[in-house]
């Protein structure tokens, strides 16, 4: 019995002395398990759009928060999800520029708002994986870029409409082929009604 206790003691001492580095390595791996995936910002507001859009009260703050989504890890983004949600609510309510106060632009803001709500919900769920959060981050970035693209299109369309000054005239051939209005005297009109 004493031999067994000594054997167990030696095994415990030997195993304790062998593994301190492996335990530290496991702790380091767990703390570094959050990998930062960066996204490249490829779409920017055009100069014409930027001049007017920056007058919006919350747009600059909105852009700063979205810039964090391009360069942060999922844990930081989960913490920023409430900020994004709050700014989107304020921004959607403060759109006063007629050029972008349109249903197609508002729809894109609503899509981004819905994605931010989902991310906010995900941040409170402990079983959500990093891949799921990363997928949601990509959805938010795509929604943001679709807003910027649409705003750029609206301003480009507006510039093109100003530059195009075409006067349309109907060709003479078409004028001759258009039937002219025929006025029927009231007596003939009454006869036609009686026949029916």
Structure annotation, total helices: 9
Give the overall average pLDDT.
79
Second rung of CATH, namely the architecture of the domain at 39-163: Up-down Bundle
Topology as H/E string? HHHHHHHHH
CATH class of the domain at 39-163: Mainly Alpha
What is the count of β-strands?
A: 0
Characterization of the model:
This protein has a domain at 39-163: Four Helix Bundle (Hemerythrin (Met), subunit A) (Up-down Bundle), CATH 1.20.120. It has nine helices and no strands. It has helices at residues 2-18, 20-31, 47-53, 59-71, 74-93, 103-123, 130-163, 172-177, 186-195. α5 (74-93) packs antiparallel against α6 (103-123) and α5 (74-93) runs parallel beside α7. It is elongated.
Q: Can you lay out the helices and strands and say which pair or pack?
A:
Layout: H1 2-18, H2 20-31, H3 47-53, H4 59-71, H5 74-93, H6 103-123, H7 130-163, H8 172-177, H9 186-195
Summarize this structure briefly.
The protein is mainly α. The chain has nine helices and no strands.
Give short descriptive properties of this protein.
single chain, 196 residues, Four Helix Bundle (Hemerythrin (Met), subunit A)
């Amino acid at each position: 019995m004493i031999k067994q206790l000594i054997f167990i003691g030696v095994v415990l001492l030997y195993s304790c002395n062998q593994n301190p580095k492996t335990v530290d390595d496991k702790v380091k791996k767990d703390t570094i398990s959050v990998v930062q995936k960066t996204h490249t910002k490829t779409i920017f507001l055009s100069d014409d759009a930027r001049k007017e859009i920056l007058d919006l009260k919350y747009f600059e703050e909105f852009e700063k928060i979205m810039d964090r989504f391009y360069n942060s890890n999922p844990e930081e983004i989960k913490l920023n999800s409430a900020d994004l949600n709050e700014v989107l609510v304020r921004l959607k309510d403060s759109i006063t520029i007629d050029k972008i106060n349109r249903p197609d632009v508002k729809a894109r803001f609503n899509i981004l708002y819905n994605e931010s709500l989902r991310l906010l919900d995900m941040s409170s769920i402990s079983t959500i994986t990093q891949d799921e959060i990363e997928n949601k981050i990509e959805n938010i970035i795509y929604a943001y870029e679709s807003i910027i693209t649409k705003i750029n299109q609206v301003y480009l369309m507006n510039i093109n409409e100003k530059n195009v000054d075409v006067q349309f005239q109907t060709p003479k051939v078409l004028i001759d082929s258009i039937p002219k209005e025929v006025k029927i005297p009231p007596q003939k009109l009454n006869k036609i009604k009686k026949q029916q």
